[in-house]
Amino acid sequence: MAGKKVLPVRQWSCLAAMPEDSPDQPVSTTAQTFASLDTLAFANGKPVLAATLKQEFGDFRVEEQLSFKFTEKGEHAYLWVEKTDRSTVDVAKKLSEVTGVHGSEIGYSGMKDRRAQTRQWFSIKLPAGREEELAACESESLRIVETHRNSRKLKIGSHRSNHFRILLRDCEGSRDDFEQRLAKINSLGVPNYFGSQRFGRDLSNLKQVQAWMSAELDEAPAPMPKQRFKRGMLFSAARSYLFNQLLSRRLELGNWNAYVPGDVLNLDGTGRSFVLKEQDEWDAILQQRLEDFDIHITGPLPGEIDSKDKYVSYGKAADIEDAVCKEFNTLLVGLRHFGLQAARRPLRFRPIDLTWEWLQSEQSEGSSDLLLDFSLGKGAYATSLLRELCVTRECFGKTAK
Fold first, then answer.
1. Beta-strand relationship, 117-125 and 60-66
2. How far apart are CA 302 and CA 148, in angstroms?
3. CA–CA separation, 226 vs 212, rounded Å?
């Protein structure tokens, strides 16, 4: 890879910087066996309850809520788009195709489920007066609900939350058991796993990035994906997998929601973090803040650690993270080799305003459907919440046109 120094694979710590003068300790870069998401630990034991998910696209509805107000003037048109069985990238391509605006001038805050009915915001750098052209984008599967003007392009992560309405059909198990698990989810929170969307069908994204990084680190560079989006998707899969494995390990150890000396803590709903100094002690005030979901334990999104980064785990917490990362050393070293910056992510989330309602099933006499209504902060996956509730059988409806 031009412009990058190729480094041999070494058993580097997940946390410590890679010293330039350390001796080479080659590690095999043969194909890694990745565990399926089914093997990740649960907060309240693996559920025996079951239900059908996404029998119809309208059974899974998402509405994106932005974190700012529009200026109502400027060179960017903001579109609140309702889409059915269409990916976020597909909609962005359609906007570019109809208007002739380059894809780099089209923005969105996050990827939304394809096999669902979703409303999300897009921005497009389009002069005022050309909005009428956007009507050509609309179809049975895509509708523009609102338009606004704004001075800046919509960037990834600009939304505040997502609101979900999810219908679980033909629920198997007692209502009491469903409601007990929902009550635990509401009070104790949910492991903040990345959802299966990150990893591709049959973990194909992980297999691709493993092969690519292995070849690069063995000084036999494989062709880098040409598309920036594709490269980002593969990097994201690698970091997300390592985070999920660490979170699962903390669940197994029983401390995913309990402070371990050296943990990095996150202030709820923000990107701000802090660590206790080694001489400071965990006290009753911090414990209460943790129990109140005012602060959260975090896990690593591995990459190169900035020497100025003040929020790096140490001690027992670092030992746990290091042990997990070393199991996937090629991914760890590869992320650093390609310049990915390390970050942190909360190990848990709690749904906002979770409510539920039982409905008589229209499909099976005597069975019940369960309608869930809740919001999640950005970065949290509804599928991770559902995973703690029941086993879901996905049954997609007809493909929209």
1. parallel
2. 38
3. 13
Distance separating alpha carbons of residues 86 and 348, to the nearest angstrom: 29
Q: Is the Cα dihedral 389, 391, 397, 401 positive or negative?
A: positive
Any idea which residue has 């965990």 for tokens? 282
The CATH architecture that domain 68-157 belongs to is 2-Layer Sandwich (3.30)
Three-state secondary structure of 214-255: HHHHCCCCCCCCCCHHHHHHHHHHHHHHHHHHHHHHHHHHCC
CA 235, CA 252: separation in Å to the nearest integer?
Answer: 26
Q: Which of 113, 170, 263, 369 is the catalytic position?
A: 113
Give the predicted TM-score (pTM) of the model: 0.87
Tokens of 242: 């390592």
Q: Which of 401, 388, 393 is nearest to 189 (CA)?
A: 388
Q: Please say whether the beta carbons of 242 and 331 come within 8 A.
A: yes
Q: What angle do CA 313, 314, 317 make, to 5 degrees?
A: 75
Backbone angles phi, psi at 344, to 5 degrees: -130, 155
In the chain, CATH 3.30.2350.20 sits at: 68-157
C-alpha span between 322 and 125 (Å, rounded):
44
Q: How far apart are CA 240 and CA 231, in angstroms?
A: 14
Extract the tokens encoding 386.
Answer: 């559902």
Dihedral over Cα of 116, 119, 121, 125: its sign: positive
Q: pLDDT tens across 333-369, in order?
A: 999 989 999 999 999 999 999 999 999 866 666 679 9
User: Contact, 118 vs 141, CB < 8 A?
Assistant: no
Location of each CATH 3.30.2340.10 domain in the chain: 192-349
- Tell me the β-bridge partners of 298: 346
**Tell me: the pLDDT tens digits for 207-248?**
889 988 888 888 776 667 777 888 888 999 999 999 999 999
Residue 176 bears catalytic tag: no
Superfamily holding 192-349: TruD, insertion domain (3.30.2340.10)
For residue 216, the one-letter residue type is: E
Stated as kind and residue range, the H or E segment containing 372 is strand 368-377
Q: Which residues pair with 84 in a beta bridge?
A: 117
pLDDT at 370 over 60: yes
Is the CB of residue 169 less than 8 Å from the CB of residue 58?
no
Report the first-to-last Cα separation within the chain, whole angstroms: 42
